[in-house]
Specification:
Immunoglobulin-like, 7-stranded mixed β-sheet, 3-stranded antiparallel β-sheet, alpha+beta
């Protein structure tokens, strides 16, 4: 009976130690220069920060090296992806990866134009299906995929990650 209690306590402590040590290994990739509220998408100028101890790589296919938008649908409580456009591999140095080294920051363009009905005077958020429109005002998240292995038109990493941050588009008043 006593050995069973000791074994249980040892198992709990060991699980806690593994959980804490696993948290230290998580990458420190995040956005800066993103405010909680905006009046229009063109005001957003995100900066990707790599505070991990490894280089990260962005997808070498346009427009996927840009940040993209999702809008939260309050009715169904799910994120809906905005329009992204078609990927284009006709780029300079297609086999040279887009690398962000440890402790580096990089300005990332937010590709928002194809997620709206009219990018000169948008009134609606347009979903990836290009048929569904949502009111422009609402809760959003910008996101970007990255990897810890070089990611080019030829090399695809086994594991990919996503960095995201949330904000709101509010009334222009």
């Amino acid at each position: 009976m006593k050995s069973a209690k000791i074994l249980t306590i040892f198992t709990i402590v060991l699980a806690f130690v593994f959980q804490v040590s696993g948290q230290d290994e998580k990458p420190k990739i995040f956005w800066k220069n993103v405010s909680p509220r905006y009046k229009k998408f063109s005001e957003i100028n995100p900066i990707l920060v790599n505070q991990s101890d490894k280089s990260i790589y962005l997808y070498k296919l346009h427009p996927y090296w840009n940040a993209h938008l999702q809008r939260f649908n309050e009715e169904i409580k799910q994120w809906e992806t905005g329009g992204k456009g078609i990927g284009c591999g006709t780029i300079a140095n297609p086999l040279e990866p887009i690398e962000i080294k440890p402790s580096e920051e990089r300005q990332i363009e937010l590709a928002w134009e194809l997620s709206t009905d009219n990018f000169e005077k948008p009134k609606f958020f347009e979903l990836q299906d290009r048929e569904t429109l949502r009111p422009l005002i609402g809760k959003y998240r910008l996101y970007l995929s990255y990897a810890f292995e070089p990611w080019t038109l030829k090399d695809t990493p086994l594991k990919k990650y996503v960095v995201s941050t949330e904000f709101e588009i509010v009334n222009k008043r």
